[in-house]
Amino acid sequence: MAVFSNRASRGRVPRPYWHSDGLLRDHPPDATVFHAVEAPERGGETLFRDARELYEELDAEDRRTLDGLTCVLGGGARRPLVVEHPPSGRRALRVNLGAIVGIVGVERESARRLVGELIAMHERPEGVYAHRYLPGDIVIWDNRAVAHSATEPPPPDQRRLIMRLDVRALASVSADAG
3-7, 23-27, 76-80, 132-136 — which is least confidently predicted? Predict the structure, then answer.
């Protein structure tokens, strides 16, 4: 469990960048749950977009290129840029655009350009849902199919306190244990 707030003394203050949760960890969560304990009257939204649709919008050549690429994240974690969503079988971009430091087998400048293109894709306003929190809201999303980003934190006079819980599917847990 993690605590997010617009006051550093009460929890982490999230930076705005598109990502799937937990990619820096050995076992990223399948889903994330946010519970809004306190919600500001303005600011502090979370943006969501379907990462499967982003992948499907790519032309066939770009999909082939991305399918085989592995990104290197801060701390040395390596993750494929494209994953198959287990329940649906659809492919999805699964990225942490705030932590990519390189792409395996891709020259540094080409990797920077590719990351810039991925950022631009994610930041297009079409297909983005902005969730404005109310106290008591519970928001759940599938990290294998959805990318999200914080927005700028609310002003200091507005209170935001969100509890985050990461969820791993039982199938994932039992497969890791065996």
Answer: 3-7
**CA distances to 82, 92, 145 from 88, in Å:** 14, 11, 10
pLDDT of residue 177: 47
Picking from 76, 80, 101, the residue whose alpha carbon sits closest to that of residue 91 is: 80
Task: Indicate yes or no: pTM above 0.85.
Answer: yes
Q: Where are the domains of the chain?
A: 2-7+15-170
Q: Are strands 100-103 and 91-93 parallel, antiparallel or unpaired?
A: unpaired
Architecture of domain 2-7+15-170: 4-Layer Sandwich (3.60)
Pairwise CA distance, residues 103 & 134, whole Å: 39
